[in-house]
Design goal:
The chain has 154 residues and is of the alpha+beta class. The longest helix has 27 residues.
């Protein structure tokens, strides 16, 4: 991918979606939302390995759909300071004869989510910037976000 193109994507998000989200967050919650989510290679590989496992329905994963989400005070297992912040949720998809990619639970091969108590999904990445009070640290370079620092400062 062209570096200028990637920089434009990150800058456009910051100047549009992130700015709109924060116009609500700052007065109501005194926080800024995350701008990216980090997952380790091991977490990603573990998720990919888990969705490739055979299931009773013999449905094979052919892709991953990434949903945007937000934590709430009652999100099980979420860090308390992640309340109201962006997150990502990854769910397996399979290609059907009609050419569409359908979400499904890779462990069971089922798509009737209303009848499943658990699904194979990946969440709980590390939010960047991490939650902080608006007066707190915000230097992306110090947090290891070199590309975000580049997009914001060049």
């Amino acid at each position: 991918m062209n570096t200028s193109y990637a920089k434009g994507l990150v800058s456009n998000y910051k100047n549009n979606q992130w700015a709109i989200i924060n116009s609500n967050f700052l007065p109501n919650y005194d926080i800024r939302d995350s701008r990216c989510v980090w997952f380790s290679i091991d977490e990603l590989q573990g998720f990919l390995d888990s969705i490739k496992q055979p299931n009773a329905q013999e449905v094979n994963a052919t892709g991953v759909r990434i949903y945007f989400g937000a934590y709430s005070t009652d999100t099980p297992g979420a860090q308390a300071n992640y309340n109201h912040l962006h997150t990502l949720l990854m769910i397996a998809t399979h290609s059907a004869a009609d050419g569409k990619n359908y979400d499904f639970d890779a462990a069971t091969g089922r798509s009737d989510f209303a009848n499943l108590q658990m699904i194979t999904a990946l969440n709980q990445g590390h939010l960047v910037p991490p939650p902080f009070n608006v007066d707190g640290p915000s230097n992306m370079y110090q947090q290891g976000n070199l590309f975000m620092d580049y997009a914001d400062n060049s």
